[in-house]
Amino acid sequence: MSIVVISSNPNELVSAIKEKIDNSSIRTWTYDSEGDFSHSPDQWEYKAWFRPSVMDGKVVFKLIAPINKHLSVQTYGVYHGRFIEMLLSHFDRLFLSASASALPSNGDLVKGSAAP
Questions:
Q1: Which of 59, 92, 94, 105 is 20 to 30 A from 19, alpha carbon to alpha carbon?
Q2: Tens of pLDDT, residues 1-40
Q3: Is residue 87 domain-resident?
């Protein structure tokens, strides 16, 4: 499932996440040259990515699996839960709500059908 984050300034939120990663205020997430976020502890590193898509009034973080791999239910849950936890812990003043559902949604690439 994508994570949908409601924000009055979604571009600012995405930039703020990258800034805190860059200055090591957030140490458990990284982002790549395409702007995709991955959980960085050894157990979870590069098991999936979230690709932000900024829209009017929200950011949708679409989940992407590694090429030719399926995501386990555990990886799926950990990535969603810990990403929302990071948002709540660091950016509570930059968004109104964040939500995720139990199953993949349109736009998620959970079967590894595309490169992150």
A1: 105
A2: 689 999 999 999 999 999 999 999 999 999 999 999 999 9
A3: yes
Does some domain include residue 95? yes
Could you give the CA distance from residue 64 to residue 67 in angstroms, rounded to a whole number?
9
If one counts the domains in the chain, the total is 1
DSSP labels, the chain: --EEEE-S-HHHHHHHHHHHHHTTS--SEEE-TT--EEE-STTTTTS-EEEEEEETTEEEEEEEPPTT-PPPHHHHHHHHHHHHHHHHHH-TTS-SEEE--SS--TT-BTT--S--
Give residue 14's domain range.
Answer: 3-99
Residue 107 lies in a domain: no
User: Given a cut of 80, is residue 105 above it in pLDDT?
Assistant: no
- Looking at residue 14, which CATH number applies to its domain? 3.30.310
What global pTM score does this model have?
Answer: 0.87
Residue 113 is assigned to a structural domain of this protein: no
Q: Which residues contact 15 (CB under 8 A, 6 or more apart)?
A: none
Assigned token pair, 25: 């205020």
